[in-house]
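Lab notebook, design round three. We kept the backbone fixed and only want residue identities now. Task for the bench partner: fill in a sequence for the structure below.
Input structure tokens:
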């Protein structure tokens, strides 16, 4: 009797790539562009195309279907403006909540391009 051996490799999602969407802020609808590079569970990248130039993400992580990272820019008074992003990956979309900065939390979705 012949024995067959099968090896299954779980393919984990990879969020590397360019993501685009729109968020509604106090200034109205704003485009949101995100470039991500995944290495294991670590994420690097930047929010791109804004009026102030690209903003690097820090403390980026991808765990299961959850994406988290922060950004920090200098506020008008010189103090850091830290914003925290938490997102849930579903297919080619990430549904984010952004906390910090002006106003309350903002929810928006980006799609992989």
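Proposed sequence:
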């Amino acid at each position: 009797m012949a024995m067959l051996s099968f090896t299954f490799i779980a393919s984990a999602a990879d969020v590397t790539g360019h993501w685009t969407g729109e968020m509604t802020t106090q200034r109205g609808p704003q485009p949101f562009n995100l470039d991500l590079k995944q290495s294991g569970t670590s994420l690097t990248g930047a929010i791109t195309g804004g009026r102030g130039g690209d903003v690097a993400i820090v403390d980026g992580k991808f765990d299961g279907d959850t994406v988290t990272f922060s950004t920090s820019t200098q506020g008008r008074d010189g103090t850091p403006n830290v914003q925290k992003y938490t997102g849930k990956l579903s297919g080619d979309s990430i549904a984010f909540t952004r906390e910090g900065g002006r106003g309350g939390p903002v929810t928006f979705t980006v799609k992989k391009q």
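Keep this in mind before ordering anything: The domain at 17-112 is CATH 2.40.160.90 (Porin).
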